[in-house]
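name: query_chain
kind: protein
chains: 1
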Amino acid sequence: MSPPFIKPAWPVPANVHALVTTRIGGASTGPWQGLNLATHVGDDPAHVALNRGWLRSQLPAEPHWLTQVHGTECVLAEASQPGCVADASVSFEPWQICAVLTADCLPVLFCTLDGQRVGAAHAGWRGLLEGVLENTVSAMQAPPDQIMAWFGPAIGPQAFEVGGEVRDAFLAQDVTSGSAFAPHGEKWLADIYRLARQRLQAMGLVSIYGGDLCTVSDAERFYSYRRDGATGRMASLIWRE
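structure:
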């Protein structure tokens, strides 16, 4: 059986730790089968509590869980209230665990090259379009070329079908984003990894990793809303010592 965690492959300093949960293990049953960590998807709250309790036992502190709304708000983890409405968080202090939940949307983890600042963002296409990654990079308060990013599991470019209005919205902001869309009948296939990479590069980030894990095509390891409808959520987490 696959392990319950994925560790990002990126050259972070030794004091920085990051991981992504999978659906392997856990107490949830039915469409949420496995290690569902979301409280808002219809799963038995007792099962979610068991899953979060197990995850907490693997971590040095309680994650800073957010109430995600497909928006662009980024908060300072150590100064925020549990469950605050935001789609990203950053931390400048040790043992503050930034976390986002996803099941097709793109989780992006951030770290400064000196290992002193970390962050996590939840980027669906709406948040991506409206600037959640830009807001997170800005909140890191570091030169963009001193920030590295890692793309976690998300809906892959062969599975993310969108309407023409989505493509038009991105093109209206950046004509080069057209390279992230491929015609698919009357609709388009969108590459959310490429769209995110383009936006980070436009800000000046040069160290960008990941982007090769498709949630839709890997039902054993990943939840996927596009594939299953009712489903659970994985967590992407990062912290520093």
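note: The helical segments are 45-57, 125-130, 132-139, 164-173, 192-203, 225-228.
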